[in-house]
Inverse folding.
DNA sequence: GTCTATACCCCGATAGAC
DNA sequence: GTCTATCGGGGTATAGAC
């Protein structure tokens, strides 16, 4: 799904790729394609949340952490030829009409923003400013990842990291 | 396509919505769905380019122009219940495997970045910095638009405009 | 639990009458 | 140019043997 989106990815294809049979897939995901997608979104929410937390814990400032995150994303995307992106972004725009899917994507974004906002508050930024900055940090990373995939190059992510660090620097 | 993405939008549905018959659609778009999508992307490239240019011409600074753009996007999205977003973003992630589609989306993004970069240079920013800032401006607007659609609220776009103005202000 | 076969539907695309 | 009918294929989901 992170490669072709929600509608473009068939369950038969997923089963083949996972070396499972179609019957097994429906045995473990009785809710069908939608349940599979919701599971994938929840998994991605956790996975990228951990990258965010790890970067924020390792680096000396939130700004430096966002630069590190952007670089990590660029390296990850480059490794498979810029094909596998963020499954939340990829599915979100196709499923805006489905409340369950839209809310799951919204929860993932909100979770990531919460991690960033908490780190900013710990770094001395006011609560209201931190919440606002978290919106822009996550949105810019998502947009830059999309741009990097379309261009098949890391530049958009690298400059996004740099500019986010600069922006956060004006608040500390 | 800006509502459900590329794969989720059938040609039959498009024909019905346009009060045309399937035969007419294929008469005017012999290349089928792909040609239709490429036409839609080119149209969107022009349309949003004009919004960018108009904002940059009217406002007193590039930063103020980006705030105006973000507000205009939020108003546009709110008008139809946050359903119709950017067709380039919506199709890009589904069609990364098709070079023609990927390059068309890349051209749209590059065109928009060029408009922003030119305005920044005219405002006194160095060429290299302007090109980099344009990446972040367009990526942040795309990401914020996606976030706003998922949340069904304008906040992500409003704060993106504010932060972009602040970021650009540190370069002028 | 795992598998095959299949029901049922809608997809993109085309053919050919008018 | 406009329309209807249809083709071939793939989609999701289910039934039922093992």
């Amino acid at each position: 799904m992170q490669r072709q989106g929600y509608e473009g990815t068939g369950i038969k294809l997923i089963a083949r790729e996972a070396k499972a049979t179609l019957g097994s897939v429906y045995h473990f995901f009785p809710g069908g394609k939608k349940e599979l997608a919701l599971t994938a979104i929840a998994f991605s929410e956790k996975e990228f949340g951990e990258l965010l937390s790890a970067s924020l814990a390792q680096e000396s400032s939130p700004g430096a952490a966002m630069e590190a995150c952007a670089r990590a994303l660029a390296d990850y995307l480059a490794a498979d030829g810029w094909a596998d992106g963020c499954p939340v972004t990829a599915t979100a725009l196709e499923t805006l009409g489905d409340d369950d899917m839209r809310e799951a994507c919204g929860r993932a974004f909100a979770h990531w923003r919460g991690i960033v906002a908490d780190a900013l508050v710990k770094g001395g930024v006011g609560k209201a400013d931190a919440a606002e900055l978290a919106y822009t940090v996550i949105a810019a990373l998502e947009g830059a990842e999309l741009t990097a995939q379309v261009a098949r190059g890391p530049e958009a992510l690298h400059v996004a990291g740099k500019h986010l660090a600069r922006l956060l620097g004006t608040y500390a």
